[in-house]
Each structure stands twice: as C-alpha cells, then as structure tokens.
C-alpha cells in the first residue's frame, strides 16, 4: 500500500493530506484522500472535474453554500458530476474528512442508480446506498489513522463493486476514450465504432455516466485546461490548442461557462497546494 502524505503550512492554513491510488481499484476509483487540519479561508470553490465524489466527515461537518445561504452536509454525502462550481465551507476549528474520487463507471457500479439523477447535485449518500452509507462512515470513523480510514473505504468500495452487474461495455469504452483523450475526440466517430444509434447512446450514457457524451467531453476538456493552467508553463493560446479548442476565445468562453471565471482570473486567485480549488474567505 503506497500512500503519499503531505503536510502543508501556508497562509491558507495548516493541514495534512494523504492520498492513495489503489491499483486494484483502477477504473473505478481515481484516488482516495484523507484531510486533517484547519484553513484560514474557510470557503473552497470546487470546479467540475468529470468525476463523482463520496465524502465522509470524520468530525465536524462542512457546509454547502449557495445563494440561499447554506446547509450542513450529511455525515456521508455524494457529489454527482458537476457542470458548475460549488462552494463548501469548512468548520471554524480543525477537522478531518475522507474522500473517494470515483469515475462515473465506478460510481454506477457502486450505487446502482441512474447517475443522471444526481448530476449537478450533492446528496445524502444514505438516500441512495441505505445502511451501507452508515457502515462506510462507521468503518472510517473507527480507524485509528489516516491509512486505516483509507483502507476501510477502499474495502467498502471493493465489496460493493464485486456485487455489481457493471456498466454497458459500449458506454464504458466510450467514456474511457473520452477520459484518455481529455475530451478531444469525435463522439460521432466513437458511436460508429460501437455500432449503436445516437438515441441509444445518449440515453444509456446519461443513465450510466450522468451526462451526455458531448457534455462529458466538455468536462474533460475543461479539466485538461485547469491542469495546464496549474502547471503554468504554456501561454493561454497554446493551452487552448493543447486542450482541443478551436482557439483561445473559444476556450475562454467555455472556461467561464463551466467555472464562472476567465482563465486569467483563475490564475490570479488563491489556490490550494496540489489542487484546482480556489480559496475564498467566508462572508
């Protein structure tokens, strides 16, 4: 078991984050993470990334903030595929939280419900997974260390995946091609390769992945841009071409639509180490 732990001390706070990418869960789980510490900027703006996430609060809980105010998150919650940013607010004192970053294929296998029903939403995992959500929380909360909590969460994922009928092979293949090519791919060409009708593909893909193939490709192009911006090694025009956009204005327009920021505004904002999220002060 290879874990990567990093202790961060910065103007944004003091925390330790531990990540694990278990090889035996590849294709289902991107990575698992454990966070413990406190932040000076309590609010975090999280951008679409083409994946779903299960969150387990191991202590005080975060709040989900929107224009109506905010509400305390459930002990275990699921964030579906985002098509717009969300803002979460950490507790004002040190906290601990665990996350499981899922591919849509993995999420569909674990949850067994149409992922279109949770796209753009953050919901109580217990409403979907029933008592299994409480079991996940209890296992992680009983662990004596970050490693133990991550191991418990991985075992929970593995057990549920083993009982799943899985995703349609055509849908899984097309989703994989979109992910590997960061969205820079012809959906029509992929559909022709699998020999399915456009209507069948759109409906089945939306059910098992959460959005249409075209939107899924847009999310992964956006994710590619965010990665390149964080690396900070290429001009914006080059980033646009590398990510498969016609030109920089096309990238700028889509970036603002999916994030609410221009690329330059994103670069100027305070970002957490090793993350694309933006730090914001609580109102």
Architecture overview:
The chain is an alpha+beta fold and 283 residues long. The chain folds into 2 domains: 3-165, Jelly Rolls (Sandwich); 169-268, Orthogonal Bundle (Arc Repressor Mutant, subunit A). It is built from 11 helices and 12 strands. It has helices spanning 104-111, 125-129, 131-142, 146-162, 169-180, 187-194, 198-209, 213-231, 236-242, 248-259, 263-268, and strands at 3-10, 13-20, 29-39, 43-46, 52-57, 63-66, 69-72, 76-79, 86-89, 95-102, 122-124, 278-280. It has a 7-stranded antiparallel beta sheet. Strands 7-6-9-4-12 form a 5-stranded antiparallel beta sheet, with no helix packed on it. Strand 2 (13-20) and strand 3 form a beta hairpin. Helix 3 runs antiparallel to helix 4 (146-162) and helix 8 (213-231) packs across helix 10. The longest helix has 19 residues, at 213-231. The chain is globular, with a radius of gyration of 19 Å.
Question: Would you spell out the secondary-structure blueprint of this structure?
Answer:
Elements (H helix, E strand, L loop, with lengths): L2 E8 L2 E8 L8 E11 L3 E4 L5 E6 L5 E4 L2 E4 L3 E4 L6 E4 L5 E8 L1 H8 L10 E3 H5 L1 H12 L3 H17 L6 H12 L6 H8 L3 H12 L3 H19 L4 H7 L5 H12 L3 H6 L9 E3 L3
Antiparallel strand pairs: 1-2, 2-3, 3-10, 4-9, 4-12, 5-8, 5-10, 6-7, 6-9, 8-11
Helix pairs in contact: 3-4, 5-6, 5-8, 8-10, 9-10
Give a brief outline of the structure:
By secondary structure, this protein is an alpha+beta fold.
List keywords for this structure.
Jelly Rolls; Arc Repressor Mutant, subunit A; 7-stranded antiparallel β-sheet; 12 strands; globular
């Amino acid at each position: 078991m290879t874990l990567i732990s990093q202790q961060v001390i910065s103007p944004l706070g003091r925390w330790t984050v531990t990540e694990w990418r278990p090889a035996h869960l590849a294709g289902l789980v991107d990575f698992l993470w454990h966070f413990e510490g406190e932040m000076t900027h309590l609010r975090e703006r999280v951008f679409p990334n083409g994946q779903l996430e299960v969150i387990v609060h191991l202590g005080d809980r975060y709040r989900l903030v929107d224009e109506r105010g905010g509400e305390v998150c459930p002990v275990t919650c699921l964030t579906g595929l985002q098509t717009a940013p969300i803002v979460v607010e950490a507790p004002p004192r040190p906290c601990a939280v665990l996350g499981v970053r899922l591919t849509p294929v993995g999420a569909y296998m674990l949850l067994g419900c149409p992922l279109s029903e949770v796209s753009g939403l953050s919901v109580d995992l217990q409403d979907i997974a029933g008592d299994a959500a409480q079991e996940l929380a209890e296992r992680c909360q009983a662990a004596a260390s970050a490693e133990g909590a991550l191991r418990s969460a991985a075992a929970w994922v593995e057990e549920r995946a083993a009982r799943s009928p899985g995703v349609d092979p055509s849908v899984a293949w097309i989703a994989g091609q979109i992910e590997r090519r960061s969205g820079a791919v012809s959906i029509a060409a992929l559909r022709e390769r699998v020999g399915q009708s456009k209507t069948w593909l759109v409906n089945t893909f939306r059910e098992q992945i959460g959005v249409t193939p075209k939107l899924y490709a847009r999310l992964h192009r956006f994710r590619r841009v965010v990665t390149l911006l964080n690396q900070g090694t290429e001009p914006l025009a080059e980033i646009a071409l590398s990510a498969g956009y016609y030109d920089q204005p096309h990238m700028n327009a889509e970036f603002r639509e999916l994030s609410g920021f221009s690329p330059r505004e994103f670069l100027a904002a305070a970002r957490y180490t090793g993350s694309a999220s933006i730090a914001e002060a609580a109102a």
